Structures are given as structure tokens and as C-alpha cells.
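User: Sequence for Lysoplasmalogenase below. C-alpha cells please.
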Amino acid sequence: MPKRALVEHRPYLVASIASSIAYFVLRTQIFDELTIIALKGAGIAFLAVYAWQRSSATAAKLLAIVLALSALGDMLIEISLEYGGAAFFGSHLVAMSLYITNSRQETSPSQKGVAIALLVITPFVCWILSRDYAVSLYGLALGGMAATAWMSKFPRYRVGIGAVLFIISDWFIFLNFRTDSGTFGLLVWPIYYLGQFLIATGVIQTLRKELPTAAPV
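Assistant: C-alpha cells for Lysoplasmalogenase:
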């Protein structure tokens, strides 16, 4: 799609990408802290607006709530890791509701195996990296989100992969705390944002095919 058409027909996606890039570039600069926090939240908040506006389906509204809670978590985590984690925990619970109510009718044994692996391995690795029971509980919700996304009717190469990228970004957060290395911290935002972008666009694309009369943006 030409750039002009993207701006005209997907303005909230453009705003999301612009906010995300601005946050990544400016986050280490001498800049007003509240502005940086707002930019960080705006990246995913605009995806939430995109989801709400692009489809009238109930699933789109659930997705918008998932993304709104994630945007809240992005901002709160700059103030308190516990508050930010709580917002993301809530986001994962709503996401599981979204994916379970839109599960795939037929799945292969290998697909079920991947889902089980995501559910089990995710909290285990969270424990290994943090040695914290609260983080492990969060990891269980994170793994549940990814497992149900993988088993949902939404495209695995967008929504499923996006959920896996979300897991990887969180693992890098815990690795960064453990090793005090800036390398892992540098990778967190691009991986996380790409994951959320793939989830948002993958779900909405599917819903709009099912409901072609959905309200345009």
C-alpha cells in the first residue's frame, strides 16, 4: 500500500509506528520524563484505537482492551515494576478470553504440542531468569496468552508469532535485570512492539474478512 494510502486509511497505525519510533529514539536523550512515558504508552494505545475502530466485532473490542491494558502497563512499568506487571497480567487474562472464544476448530498434534510447550516453558524460564515466584506466576499468564493465541483461529504467522515475540521481549527484560547488560535492554522495545503490531493487525485482518461491512477508519 502506498504511503499516502496508508496514512489516509490507517492513520492510527501510522500514529502508532511514529510514536514507537519516537520513544525508541528519544528514550535515552535528555528529555522530559513524562513526555517519554506518554510516547511509550502511545505506541500501543494507538493500536488499541485502531482495533476498536477497524471492526465492530466483539473480538475487536476485547483486543482493544488487551492493547489498552498493555499501553497502561508500558507506562506504569516506568514508575513501578509491580504496577506495570499487574497491568500486563490483566492484559494477558483478557487476551486468553479473546483467543479461547475464537479457538481454531481443528488443530494438529504438533500445533497442540507447541501450545503446551509455550504454556509450560514460559513460566519455567521466567523462574530461571528471575528466581521470583511472582514473576513465575506472571510467566504462567504470559505463556497462557501465547498458547491460546497459537490455538486460536487467527493466523499463526502473525498473531502466534507476535505472542512468541512478546514472550521473548519479557525474557530479555529479566535477562537485562540479571546481567545488567544494556544489550538485552536495547532489544526489548523493538521485539515487543513488533509482537504487539503483528497481534493487532493479524486479529483485525481476520475479523474484517469475516465482517466485511466493519466500520472503516
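The CA atoms of residues 62 and 97 lie 8 Å apart.
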